[in-house]
Write a structure and sequence with these properties.
Largest sheet: 4 strands, parallel
Helix content: 40-55%
Order of helices and strands: EEEHEHHHEEHEEHEHEEHHEHHHHHHEE
Number of domains: 3
CATH superfamily of the largest domain: HUPs
Strand order of the largest sheet: 4-3-9-10
Shape: elongated
Number of strands: 14
Structural class: alpha/beta
CATH topology of the largest domain: Rossmann fold
Strand content: 5-15%
Number of helices: 15
Bound molecules: adenosine monophosphate, zinc ion
Length: 474
């Protein structure tokens, strides 16, 4: 299994720290707003990485934080005249709803920065003791970047270039730094801001130290995979490495994974362009499963453009998978699936169908190539459409359905939709279809057409097939 490692800029064979286990940390959102559709990309991508590891038999300890102390949170709280906690609790709850709608599973642990302050103070103390950090006059604690020889190794930046870049950017108020590249570990509170007691001043942690501490606490000094969007490579992840490796004298993470950005209609998403889309809006207007399918239709390291046309295309493609599963269930109706006896020739066919699983795994083993994995699922769908009929045994149809559902589930895609599974609405629709069939038998075509039209108005499409009437949502 190969993973592209941002650190080495190469695909590397994955070797876990502990056999059979994966320890991974994914930088989570800052919670001051509903999450946007760009934030959903790392959530879906790394949830899929986790699912694939589990499919391969690994136990995955998946940690993803909520950053719940930040300037943007303080601003949002002030604007609404409520506490920061009111804002963060609200948007953590909303974020969890959005994740669930996209079938992103909750992390093993979702730590929150504000609940880990003691650990941050301990790590900062350690860095000061080891000469990697210093306290300025006003109580700000800075990381001494020059003390870490490997600084720049993840972003492949050269220290000298960085230094000259920073010098030209030097802004007032930062002159208490020993070096312009130094970054904040702890900063003094301003009037009206949340703060914690510390040996240096009443204040709050810098952003980078939060992840270093939460990753170490829940996963250990060295972890397998650290991940996030590519905007985090520098400075966030570079600074996390500096802090953690200086504090513990160990490699922080063995593999660094970064997803490329999602753009909207070929533009960067930004508030000023007015093209900012929340996940909530997008999943209200579209089937969230289609949104998930869309996100995985490109490789995670390629930029992805989000547009209505592309979502429509994704819907058509995803429907082909759902319809195939629905057809299999239809063919299974009335068959004894508990009877595992296969009919003549079916065993060979099932063996043939396994080649799509092999293709799927080959794609996923190659740095989680979900685009190719989806192609393998389509090949399987095409094959099933040719090789499954009402003449097959229940056991055979069941096995094909299981393969389709299992591979789709690795991508977090649900093939058995509620409408097919006999919910109240489905029962009502099926009753109407029966009534229409009865009307046709009685040659009351006006009534039969009226039922068909009323269903069509509700977005239910009927299909007359040789096996009977089938329906699906438009
Ligand atoms: P933030 O709340 O801005 O720290 O973002 C949370 C996560 O979403 C980080 O991993 C970011 O890299 C990622 N992210 C933010 N915007 C986008 C985008 N447009 N496309 C893909 N990932 C993004
Ligand atoms: Zn982080």
């Amino acid at each position: 299994m190969k993973i592209y490692n941002t650190m080495s800029k190469r695909k590397e064979e994955f070797v876990p720290l502990t056999p059979g286990e994966v320890k991974m940390y994914v930088c989570g959102p800052t919670v001051y707003n509903l999450i946007h559709i760009g934030n959903a990309r790392p959530m879906i991508v790394f949830d899929t990485v986790r699912r694939y590891f589990e499919y391969k038999g690994y136990r995955v300890n998946y940690v993803s934080n909520f950053t719940d102390v930040d300037d943007k949170i303080i601003k949002a709280a002030q604007e609404e005249g409520v506490s920061c906690e009111t804002i963060t609790e609200r948007y953590i709850a909303e974020c969890k709803k959005d994740m669930a709608s996209l079938n992103v599973r909750p992390a093993t642990t979702h730590p929150q920065a504000t609940k880990e302050i003691d650990g941050m103070i301990e790590m900062i103390k350690k860095l000061i003791d080891k000469g990697h950090a210093y306290v300025a006059k006003d109580g700000t604690v800075y990381f001494r970047t020059e003390s870490f020889r490997d600084y720049g190794k993840l972003s492949h930046k050269n220290l000298d270039d960085l230094q000259s870049g920073f010098r030209s950017l030097l802004v007032s108020g930062e002159d208490q730094k020993e070096d312009p590249m130094d970054f904040v570990l702890w900063k003094p509170k301003k009037e009206g801001e949340p703060y914690w007691e510390s040996p240096w001043c009443q204040g709050r942690p810098g952003w980078h130290i939060e992840c270093s501490v939460m990753s170490q606490k829940y996963l250990g000094d060295t972890i397998d995979i650290h991940a996030g969007g590519e905007d985090l490579i520098f400075p966030h992840h570079e600074n996390e490495i500096a802090q953690s490796e200086c504090a513990h004298d160990k490699t922080f993470a063995n593999y660094w994974m970064h997803n490329a950005f999602l753009n909207i209609d070929n533009h960067k998403m930004s508030k000023s362009l007015g093209n900012f889309r929340t996940v909530r809006d997008v999943v209200t207007e579209n089937d969230p499963q289609v949104v998930r399918f869309f996100m995985l239709s490109a490789h995670y390291r390629n930029p992805l453009n989000f547009s209505k046309d592309l979502l429509d295309l994704a819907k058509n493609s995803y429907d082909r998978i759902v319809n195939c599963a629905s057809n299999l269930r239809f063919l299974m109706q009335g068959k004894d699936t508990a009877d595992t006896t296969l009919a003549a020739g079916e065993e060979e066919l099932l063996k043939e169908a396994e080649k799509f699983r092999t293709e799927f795994e080959k794609a996923m083993d190659d740095d989680f190539n979900t685009a190719d994995a989806i192609s393998a699922i389509f090949e399987l769908v095409k094959w099933i459409n040719i090789n499954a009929s009402a003449d097959n045994s229940g056991a055979y149809l069941e096995k094909l359905h299981a393969e389709l559902a299992e591979l789709s589930d690795v991508l977090g895609l649900i093939v058995d939709r509620e409408e097919d599974l006999g919910g109240n609405e489905a029962k009502e629709i099926e009753a109407l279809i029966e009534e229409r069939q009865a009307a046709r038998k009685a040659r009351d075509f006006a009534k039969a057409d009226a039922i068909r039209d009323s269903l069509k108005e509700r977005g239910i499409i009927l299909e007359d097939t040789k096996e009977g009437v089938k329906w699906h949502k438009a």
